[in-house]
Design brief:
mainly alpha; Arc Repressor Mutant, subunit A; two-stranded antiparallel ribbon; 11 helices; 2 strands; 72% helix; globular
């Protein structure tokens, strides 16, 4: 056990090993938050953070009606994903793909989002608001927010593409946020406000504002990595 890891990271690593070993099969339901909290002797909030981390990596999903399930694997360019390292050049390539996909996803989400989508996005925005100042969990919630936008687009193929590159997306979010905050160009509060505006554009069915906000957000991320 790595003593330098936070509790949620330790639990997320343990659950990931269980999933990778096939002890819980794709499509099967994980134990409840209360059961996991009792099993690992931690608080429910720690378990929720661990599950959010696994969701950001595309390993599990929450389903309507409650519960967390192991995601079923789909076709994915595994060789490409496995070859991605954390160099800026490769992360910029991921960002270029994200711009192509996510600007359109935001526009579609503003047009086709359901009330359930708005509730899910609103819940993540509240999580992001409460996590301002805690970078580790903020990065996870931001990843989940972008994946939720793809889901709100109503386009299953687009949602699947985003899910399959979620690990690479998470790395670009980690690195660009660190560079933003280190350079002093933005504060954690400003980054949250940018996502809040994106949520409001989707909630208010304003596709032009949603696309423009997403374009600006990803351009800033690319600029941070290029610096």
């Amino acid at each position: 056990m790595n003593l330098y890891k936070k509790n949620y990271e330790i639990i997320a690593d343990e659950l990931r090993r269980i999933l990778e070993a096939g002890l819980i099969k794709p499509g099967e339901k994980l134990d409840s938050i209360d059961q996991l909290a009792a099993q690992y002797r931690v608080g429910r909030s720690t378990v929720r953070e661990a599950l959010s981390h696994l969701k950001a990596l595309g390993l599990v999903e929450s389903r309507q009606g409650g519960g967390t399930y192991v995601k079923k694997p789909g076709p994915r360019p595994q060789a490409v994903l496995d070859s991605l390292q954390t160099s800026n050049a490769e992360l910029i390539e991921v960002l270029q793909v994200r711009k192509i996909i996510e600007v359109g996803a935001a526009e579609l989400a503003a047009n086709y989002r359901t009330e359930d989508d708005v509730k899910e996005l609103g819940k993540i925005i509240e999580q992001m608001r409460n996590a301002v100042g805690n970078e580790d969990i903020s990065q996870i919630y931001e990843t989940n927010f972008h994946l939720a936008i793809a889901k709100a687009s109503g386009n299953k193929m687009l949602e699947s593409m985003m899910t399959h590159i979620s690990s690479a997306i998470h790395r670009t979010i980690q690195d660009s946020r660190r560079l933003w905050l280190y350079s002093g160009k933005d504060t954690a509060g400003k980054l949250f406000e940018e996502h809040r505006r994106l949520f409001e554009a989707i909630r208010d069915r304003d596709p032009q504002a949603a696309a423009a906000t997403m374009t600006r957000h990803l351009a800033q991320a690319e600029s941070a990595l290029q610096r």
